[in-house]
Amino acid sequence: MKSSSRAVHAGRQLGARAPLAPDLSPASVYVFTDLDDYDAVARGEKPGSYYGRNSNANREMLERTVAELEGAEAGVAAASGMAALHAAILALAPRPTAIVATRELYGGTAALLRQDLEPAGYEVHFIDLTDLDAVRRSMPAAGLVIAETITNPLCRVPDLEAIGTMARESGVPFLVDNTFATPLLCRPLELGATVVMHSATKYLGGHSDLLAGVIVGDAGVMGAARKRVARTGGTLGPFDAWLALRGIRTLDVRMRRHSENALRLAQAMRSMPRVAKVHHPLLETSPSFPVASRLLREGAGGMMAFDLDGGRDAVQRMIKRFRLVTFAASLGGVETTISYPEITSHRAMSPEERAALGVGPGTVRVSTGIEDAEDIVSDFAQAID
After folding, report:
1. 64 annotated active-site
2. What pairs with residue 327 in β-bridges?
3. How far is CA 142 from the centre of its chain?
4. What's the pLDDT tens digit per position in 53-102?
5. Strand 303-308 vs strand 363-367: parallel, antiparallel, or unpaired?
């Protein structure tokens, strides 16, 4: 099946008289006929669940769905994107090692590396992953490489294919956060990634009503990650898993509209007064355009950013003038929202660190929704003018 059809049907096989919408299974404990019955289920020799922290039908369906969409052997769902990311890092690098990460990393991921893993003995090196020479120099000492398909918030696109080749040749695990692109627009495992991670809170869920994270990869790595998530209690609840699965069924039509609207807004903003710079990987002026055109042939999703003259005061005035667009710290919903990285995703960084990345007091991140594109463009135009 093509990816659009796969998104609708992945993760389950419907039989006669089966419910078309999956049942919600909130049970935390299960009953058994005898000791051997329980033991067989706990060992994985018989299908079924025995305790909600270890297994659940809704969570397993979500894991199968995302794994199928990404072309992976298996998946693990966790209580949030950060919980899933943490499990993936420790599955790939269970002992302290050198981690090479994109310097444009999401602020929450950077905080995890600095505040939790560095004190535990890991070395973290933030580099420009769009500089392939710098990547090549970092490989001999690396124990893990972490990248984002589309970076947050400036929407740059590293050459995952080239990095994946280098990592494979060096025997270094390669972890890719594919949240912004989703498997409908990019499948990093096919480009050389070892594990792919999603904050399902964003586009996979798509309606700003759940917290979830999913990682996918080969069965061995996922087995180690699953055990760690169960031991540490980071498992995903059944209702959030059910909601995420429901969201995935419309992922294709949403991502097409998100992609079209974001590119349309980015193109329009280039001629708006007081907009100093527009960040979108499929603009011809973007430094990522050659790579993005090759890796993101179906679109770049709904994320973009821009720099507004006048800094924080100008951003504040714009927010108060919006009629359709709203200010919200997260992303990936059907509504168009803006976020201010200085106090949201990148608040843990110093002003100097943000400036080095190109994130200034006038930088605004946009999660473009699925409304009519003309309405979105018009609202930004009147709010900025």
Report:
1. no
2. 338
3. 23
4. 999 999 999 999 999 999 999 999 999 999 999 999 999 999 999 999 99
5. antiparallel
